[in-house]
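Data availability (excerpt). The following record was deposited with the supplementary files.
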Amino acid sequence: MSTVATLLRDLESTMRRGAGSDRADILSRLTDLFLATAIDLDEEQVGVFDVVIGRLSRAIELRARIELAERLAPVPNAPNGVVHQLALDEIAVARPVLLLSPRLSDQDLVAVAAAKGRDHMLAITERPHLGEPVTDFLILRGGRVVTQAVAANQTARFSRHGMGVLAMRAVQDDALQETLGLRRDIPAELAAQLMRAAKSSARRRLAEQLAPNLTGEIDDAVERGAEAVAAGGRMPGELGPISTALAEIHALDQAGGLDEAQVRAFAEAGRTEHAICALALLAQLSPPAAEQVILGSDREAVLLVARGLDWSWETTAALIALRKDYGKSEAAVERARDSFRNLAQSTAQRVLGFLRMRDARP
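Predicted structure:
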């Protein structure tokens, strides 16, 4: 442990000087030493690293904290206090330890979820072998997206109460029905309840399919849109704004001109219907679902979808600006930018997949 003593002296000197790059260097050296010796350390010795790394990690920049979390996450005897500190950090830092660290108990995970909210909950849903206290809490407090995500975790364990709540919610949620249908741990009585719900959903969808078929009208509109685009003109206005925009967007897509840049251009020009229809086509959603993403009550939906599509913040900000409630608020947009940048793309892609499942109609 003489090397640790040397590093401790370096740390004290570095903290007094206040150089950020020096702190990051000391932290990297100390973490290297811990990882090289971890297998032979007892808890008292790990505690020394815990104090030193914990003190240092509170005074380093975001990138260094992310690297620290990634390195310590899979280590069975990682410094306990540091792991808990990282788990409560912003999501980019917390995500590796929430997914992997064996230092976090069920009670720890529940406490983090309660303290931090949806981004941290979504990260926890990807953790293997979640225990019943965690899944119960996520179902109770996590909302629809988190519920979908935890139900899709095939190694998660559910209490009878938790599974019952999932089955009850699935009655009104076709996507959750499909997710639960893939699980092998559904009790027999709840499986029968899910079967009844699925039959009810099938009858509802059949009734919807018996509504007047507008496919021919839309196809005609697409053809007229293609002609108008080719001629440099605009669509005639006999159809509603969304139908007109949808025809033009289909024509643009067929001409190979539909991409993220075009979505951003529509949004920046205030052409809301065109932005909605373009998002629908590129995200593989229906226009009503795309309208909810951009203008609906869930303000984070557009962040999740745009991140899932690997779009830039500039495009996302242009879509946010179409909203009347907070699209013009600089403070709200700044908070949205921070959330967007801290959002893991893999999480956003999973959420987008759930949105597509929920939106799908046979």
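Summary of structural features: Residues 188-209 form the longest helix (22 residues).
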